[in-house]
Amino acid sequence: MTVDVTETISQTVHPAFQLVRQHHVEALDILVSEYKHKVTGAVHYHLAANHDENVFLVAFRTQPMDSKGEAHILEHTALCGSEKFPVRDPFFLMIRRSLNTFMNAFTAADWTAYPFATQNKKDFQNLLEVYMDAAFAANLNPLDFAQEGIRIELENGEPVYKSVVFNEMKGAMSSPSDQLYHQLAHHLFPETTYHYNSGGDPKDIPDLSYEELVNFYKSHYHPSNAVFMTFGNESAYNLQEQFETLALSKFQQGETLYSKAERRLTAPVTVTESYAVDAEDLKDKTYHIISWLLPEASDIKLRLGMRLVEGILLEDSASPLRHYLETCGYAQSTGPIMGVDDSNFEMTFYCGVQGSNPEHAEEFKAGVFKVLEQVASAPVDAQMVEAILHQIELHQREINGDGTPYGLSLILNGLGSAIHHSDPVHVWDVDTAIEQVKEELKDPMWLSNLIKTHLIDNQHRVQMTLVPDAEKSAKEAEAEKARLAAIGAQLTDEQKAEIVAQTEALKVRQDTPDDLNLLPKVGLEDVPAELQIVQGQLREIISNGLDTPLNLYHAGTNGIYYQQVLVQIPQDIVQSPYFNLLSILVGEVGAGEYDYLELQQLQTAVSGGLGMGASLRSKLDDKNQITAWLTLTTKSLVNNLDAIRLLKVAFEQLRFDEKDRIIELLQQRKTRWQSRVSGAGHSYAMQVAGRNHSALALRDYNNTGLGALNWLTELTAKIEQDETAYDALIAELQLIHHRILKAPKQFLLVCEEHQSERLVEEVQTIWDKLSIEPNDRELTQVQATVTENDEAWLIQANVQFCSAAYPAVEVSHPDAAPLMVLAAYLRNGFLHSAIREKGGAYGGGASYDGNACSFRFYSYRDPRLAETFQDFDASIEWLLNAPQQEHQLEEAILGLIASMDKPGSPAGEAITACYSLLHKRTPAYRKLLRTRLLAVNLDDLKRVATTYIQSQKPTKAVVAPVAKRDILMELGFDIKQVN
């Protein structure tokens, strides 16, 4: 419903703001109020909700017209000190002085946003003051630009580029999918801001000047160009009082940026571009993609209509376009960018494949348009449309928040519309648009005509073939080297002296302690006394003639239920690499009477999907033992109980007779895994370094690490060529499936209380009996790879990821808590400055992993190697020999407590509570760990640092570019390479 702006309501509005309208979103139970600041025109959307986790975001319309990275670098430097808080690093300092549940900043294609979330009222006020001052009164010190943006230093008299963002973007642009996206946008948008890389292209970032950065700030960071969004139980009046006092009262009306429609192409564009690979064999490494530019995203009916088109064409493997792309025969997987993107001013539509070869470009295009013509030639099946509408309603109703806070997820969903001067309410409340679309659907050809108009006949489209280039990395490195050499040749003695002086000044600034008293803080006295843990009920149902536990949790799930089957996994299956492959098949191959296409259609119609995964932990008090549970999952609206039956069918009657589909799924898994490696290099480095510190760490190294990726690559190649190899694979999978069917089980059900009894009854009825075929074959034993040496894994990248790991204790040990605090203490007090600020890496730190039973140092997107390992060692020397401060200890503990207390979604918290009990992480244990954390002192940190780190030799690991092979060999690493 829409609430009229009455005189009574206006009396509660802050005098500096005008209430434009209010709208209650019934499906989400939030009241959206739109306000406008009377002087500057700043817009404020407040999402009032009965949530303790309050969220704030301020965003600016940022429209760079080059790829120098000014928007991204400004995002960094704005957080490096402001008028009221003239400290060098208020953002990272506040992370430590806060109980925040989220703090970050984002640079998108045409906006930059600064969000935070917290459950603590005092903390909210503190963070609001810092964020508002950073946004509207940033100092923009030239030395912070040098640190974060770009600078030249002299090494042995020769110039080199250094900076955080420069190295961040070198790492980001190592990813083929990122290169694909930006090169495609370059051609799809010839004239508007989307033509450029707002994050900054490493080739262009050195061209950005400090003066350009300051001018960009002045022209973009103004309240008239800003959008405020807030969520939670804080009143809009109080928020606006702070906005006005902290910033808005200091400004007059300024310029508001508006997005421009792209000049339309009169004919399609076909291009071939390249991306860097470090491999001799370039076969099956090409991407083919077609992208279309659609009308403005503000057309909410068309926006939802194109979402329906996306669902019809691409929702699942039975959808005609996805089915074609997955089974075309000339590619290994669908592309990394698929479907509608409605986040920009004008929408785009993508489809593509990867793992192909250049000569298939015409075949790809012909195949795509053949499918589109076939679908558009007749009315779309009404049942298919209903299934997609079901998915839209499920997505609309689901309360997320297990990663990003729920309120922030809602805000980010609507932000694009607000940035583009459109209406975000239509994003939060789709009911009106659905009613409009249902009227259009009375014309059976409406969706078919959308496909014809916006895809088949749309001349503004780009077909790109992205081919691998084994020499591109070397060429780019040589080009950078030549550019620097040319700069060096022209440097005068005076200019060299200026560079040296800047380097020294930056070092002094980085080494000068900040006056922390300038910043607000919360303390341990603000920490809630108790850890809030969701409580469930333990019921019993009869399954296969046995009393079987059912874990029932009541939660505010907004009309959705979550059902899981929890299976205790035998230890030999846990160790088998084939177990992970089985999880790929559930819900993706046929089951019982359904082939895989029919099963895919059923999933879309009645559920939010079927899935299989695993929850693995080291035993609480024995790192040589693993507790392992298989998880079979589904969710659906409460009026759709068929999902429960479908989960049972998909698990119990899993079919192994669809050979082409199984090979296709393994190829997809391999291709997508390969594309994600460079984005998670630090995780792989830590996994390699700590691989021998627990049974679970070794299992994960062998089964989910880079070696496992090589094994999967070899396996997929083998089973395509060798029938015997394929049969052996199926035999292993069938045996694991049989063993899991026989293994002890529990059930998990999360739902609203008034729906629970009918759902429990349905679970009991559906899971009453299991059909288990006999299978007496022995599982093939796989010998775990155990090596002690330092390892370097070579991948396609432009930067390094370093780690050093030390064996540590189980999580039940009293020293687990001080080791957790030690990691945070070293990161805050030494490693952040040494690795990020001075070393130029995008990130770095330390962590204690209770499952790996390992203490690990790491760096992320790091330009250095040996020096980073020296910094790891130096952090311990600093702890043991330099004066230490109690406030730094408090900051380390605060961060850990905030992480433990961070709320999830209602369903997510229930699922987490259940899994914790399965692994014996009882409420008593979790509360004890929290108590131990709060009791850690500085002597504890020095003791565990001496015991577990200083007195032991670490295992080192690096994930690095192929070009670093010789250097890594000189440093003593065993060299391995990702295939």
Automatic annotation (TrEMBL):
Lineage: Bacteria, Pseudomonadati, Pseudomonadota, Gammaproteobacteria, Moraxellales
Pfam families: M16C_assoc, Peptidase_M16, Peptidase_M16_C, PreP_C
Residue stretches making up the Peptidase M16C associated domain: 466-715
Superkingdom of source: Bacteria
PANTHER family with a match to the protein in the record: PRESEQUENCE PROTEASE (PTHR43016), PRESEQUENCE PROTEASE, MITOCHONDRIAL (PTHR43016:SF13)
Name assigned to this protein: Peptidase M16
GO molecular function: metal ion binding
SUPFAM superfamilies: LuxS/MPP-like metallohydrolase (SSF63411)
InterPro entries recorded: Metalloenz_LuxS/M16, Pept_M16_N, Peptidase_M16_C, Peptidase_M16C_assoc, PreP_C
Annotated GO biological process: proteolysis
Source species: Acinetobacter cumulans
